[in-house]
Amino acid sequence: MEALKPLEPTPTTTAISITFAAALLLFTIGFILPTFRQWYRLRHVPGPFLNSITSLVYARRTLKDGSAQYVYDLCKKYGPLVRVTPNIVVFSDAQTFRYVCSPKANYTKGLWFEFSRWDLERWSCIAMRDNESRKERKRRLIPAWSGPGLAMMEERVDARVREFVGLVERKYVSTAPGEGVKPMEFGHRAQFFTLDVATGVTFGKPFGFMERDGDVNRYLEITEVMLPMFGILGALPQLVYAMHAWPLNKLMPGAGDKVGFGVLMKFAEDEVQKRLQPGDKNSELDLIRAYLKNGIEPEDVVQECITLVVAGSETTSVVLRMALLALLTTPEAYRKLQAEVDAYYNKANHKRDDSDVISYADAKELKYLWAVIRETMRVWPNGAGLSFSKQVPDTGDTIHGYYLPKGTEIAQCMLGVTRDKALFGPDVEIWRPERWLEATPERADEMWAAVELGFSTGKYICLGKQVALMELGKWFTEIFGDYDIAPVNNVSPLKLVDGVTWLSSNFWIRFTRRN
Question: Which of 135, 147, 154, 515 has the most crowded Cβ, counting Cβ within 10 A?
């Protein structure tokens, strides 16, 4: 049998070979080498191998329910520092949180914060990644949140609490069983309340969610559509550059929009301009006037106002919803809170008046109320996803014995921080307010110091912390004093999704007046 002769190269086969070799070389240079370099620089930090070579693993998780639990499970499996993407590591303890946020550590905010820039020519404090610029801006913001400013905010919160009670009276009071049930979907009504508080404090007047008892200019609808994007940016913060570049920047909200964030941006711009007019005789205090008085440029005041409304309303509404859910599903706790509220109003010097709302100072004396609020913030902490990451300084740093080169992003697992068994006890998975009353004062302070990290700490602490707590204390005291509340669906009170925040839907409840 005659042997096969080797094929002679032809111009066509030569061209194919060269093309294939070139493609392989480009693939190696463009993908394999960068991937190897990314993996290599943090190869010593434990975590799933696939997560160490691509961010798509975690990005895909953010599109599903349970992304916060996923990170928490990784922390339990791999230890105090876990690599969850090629350039993001996660810690799960309060001590590291405080260190990273301390001025001496010299960490800066991570790339994720760039997404909170609504105007690419301007910055809000939360979006500022340069520490010195942020420090100077915060110096000008702080006076508005204390003294007369805080007193003004309490008046505005009181007005919104009364408006919520009015909404219940107007549409949602159920009568005796069998005579008429008027259910309320509380998931959105909690946001209506917190959004109207935030806009009322900021602009001097609410946006009108409770008055309308519905979405305003599709703001909530568009917000809920955008929330998964925040989660994806937590995994792929580099995408923020694409979001701010043509053509994707054309899809970003703008003051000319007729719906969503754009309407809020136009509203903020108009309200700032009103206060700059020579004929503005209104001396009523609000955040806009306070910020302008403190020397913040008008365009930057607009950015601060938008950020406050977006960030402040969502986080507070989460605590409202989850605390009410926990109370409705824990009858003993429900009765204890209601008894404490009744005892407060039964005192001679605390006579119940329909026009009065409990003062923040008095609300802070209700021990079981704050045990409920703090326990809720512990079990369902804010900032549960990979958002709010920080960036390791140019000098690099060592965390939990692992060296992190400059540019590494480091984030917190809040579920790990607030479920520390050494601090909170072995039953950390259970919502149990009594743990706060059983603890010694010193231990309770230590527990709260960990939980309140949901407001951040150090140079990054949230200025709206006291207003958020004020809303919660006043709302629960007033509502539990006036009404009995029950879930419409006892088997499945709501649908809950954990991700960049705790999203709930179909949370139907009914109110009946108390005798």
Answer: 154
Tell me if 86 sits within 8 A of 47, measured CB to CB. no
CA dihedral 75, 80, 83, 84 (to 10 degrees): 30
To 5 degrees, how large is the angle CA 11–CA 16–CA 17? 100
H-run or E-run covering 179: none
Show binding-site residues.
462
Q: Which CATH superfamily is domain 37-513 in?
A: Cytochrome P450 (1.10.630.10)
As a residue count, the chain comes to: 515
Report residue 333 CA to chain centroid gap: 26
Q: Which residues pair with 403 in a beta bridge?
A: 398
Using DSSP, state whether 511 is helix, strand or coil. strand
> Quick check: helix, strand or coil at residue 388?
coil
- In degrees and rounded to multiples of 5, residue 463 shows phi and psi of -70, -25
Q: CB of 369 within 8 A of CB of 363?
A: yes
Nearest to 259 by CA among 225, 304, 222: 222
**Integer Cα distance of 489 and 508 in angstroms:** 7
Give which of 78, 28, 30 is closest to 51, Cα–Cα. 78
DSSP letter for each residue of 252-292: S--TT-SSTHHHHHHHHHHHHHHHHSTT-------HHHHHH
The confidence score (pLDDT) of residue 123 equals 84
> What token pair was written down for 260?
């969503």
Domain positions in the chain are 37-513
Handedness of CA 67, 70, 76, 77 (dihedral sign): negative
One-letter amino acid identity for 389?
S
What tens digit of pLDDT does each residue of 10-32 get? Answer: 666 565 556 656 655 565 565 57
3-state secondary structure at position 145 = helix
> What is the C-alpha separation between 125 and 117, in angstroms, rounded?
10
DSSP-assigned states of every residue in 337-361:
HHHHHHHHHHSGGG---TT----HH
pTM: 0.90
Residue-wise pLDDT tens digits, 434-472: 999 999 999 999 999 999 999 999 999 999 999 999 999
Which tens digit of pLDDT belongs to each residue from 225-255?
777 777 777 777 777 777 777 777 777 777 7
Both tokens assigned to 300: 């930057």
Residues of the binding site for heme: 462
Strands 483-487 and 184-185: unpaired
Query: Torsions phi, psi of 157, nearest 5?
Result: -65, -45
Residues 6+ apart with CB under 8 A from 337: 327, 368, 369, 372, 476, 480
Residue 512: pLDDT over 70:
yes
Q: Which two tokens stand for residue 414?
A: 């809040």
272 is written with which tokens? 């700032």
CA distance 146 to 152: 10
Compute the distance between CA of residue 233 and CA of residue 242 in angstroms, rounded to an integer.
11
